[in-house]
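tokens incoming
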């Protein structure tokens, strides 16, 4: 299944970077599942249907009474739950720079503890339902009028949700501009010392192996195999130096199928065998 990059696939290739963008999205039973790479923060205002959204380390089921605010950088696996249903929502994308402008105008305390969740669940009410009804596909024919109107609508929904959810929502907003690492890096670095293969880590990132390798090179400037090998061998060296285990005890834990391969890789990197270092 191909990975769709949004909102890029909804925008015309005119070289213009849109910082606020609305799109009417419909998912029918002939497309039950889809994989998405999200490059902008996004409101997903659900109007019809329900579906399950899977993230790297979480999942959430939403119905027509709920909407989501999802942070950029997420790789999503979306699944239509009822094959007889249609999933219909309005997507409202916004850039980090626009959010910073809003937070400069309406300051939020920087002492708030960051929220690292990939999404924020919004319970639709009468106001939000009315708000959704005012959004239209204004990004189809961009104009100064539409841009100004979207700016107003953007401020409106953020101010309303700050009033509705208080500090809980403010915490999530603040986290959107204080990201220490992308979800992609978080998944990789949480599995550095596992015995997972590249294919398995790529799966956790909702990527094909080839896409994973390209993304890894762009992020780290080195191949994932070499990077993981170096990290794991360095950790193995520390364990052996501490005398807590032998090479026979740990080679499987660091991704090697046999002791011989581990010993060869170890010696190539450090110039001595693992048995020598543990003496």
């Amino acid at each position: 299944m191909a990975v769709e990059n949004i909102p890029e696939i909804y925008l015309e290739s005119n070289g213009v970077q849109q910082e606020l963008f609305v799109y009417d999205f419909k998912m029918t039973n002939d497309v039950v599942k889809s994989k998405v790479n999200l490059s902008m923060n996004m409101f997903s205002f659900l109007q019809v249907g329900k579906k399950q959204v899977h993230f790297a380390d979480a999942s959430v089921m939403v119905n027509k009474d709920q909407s989501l605010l999802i942070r950029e950088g997420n790789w999503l696996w979306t699944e239509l739950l009822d094959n007889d249903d249609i999933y219909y929502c309005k997507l409202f994308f916004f850039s980090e720079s626009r959010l910073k402008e809003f937070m400069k105008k309406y300051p939020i305390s920087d002492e708030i503890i960051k929220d690292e969740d990939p999404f924020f669940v919004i319970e639709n009410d009468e106001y939000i339902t009315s708000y959704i009804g005012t959004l239209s596909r204004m990004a189809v024919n961009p104009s100064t009028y539409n841009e100004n109107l979207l700016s107003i609508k953007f401020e409106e929904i953020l101010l309303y949700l700050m009033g509705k959810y208080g500090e809980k929502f403010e915490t999530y907003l603040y986290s959107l501009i204080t990201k220490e690492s992308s979800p992609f890096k978080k998944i990789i670095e949480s599995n550095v010392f596992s015995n997972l293969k590249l294919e398995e880590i790529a799966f956790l990132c909702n990527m094909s192996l080839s896409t994973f390798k390209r993304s890894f090179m762009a992020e780290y400037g080195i191949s994932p195999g070499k990077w993981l090998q170096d990290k794991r061998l360095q950790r193995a060296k520390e364990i052996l130096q501490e005398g807590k285990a032998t090479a026979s005890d740990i080679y499987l834990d660091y991704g090697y199928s046999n002791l011989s391969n581990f010993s060869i890789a170890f010696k190539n990197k450090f110039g001595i065998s693992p048995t020598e270092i543990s003496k």
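note: The longest helix spans residues 144-165.
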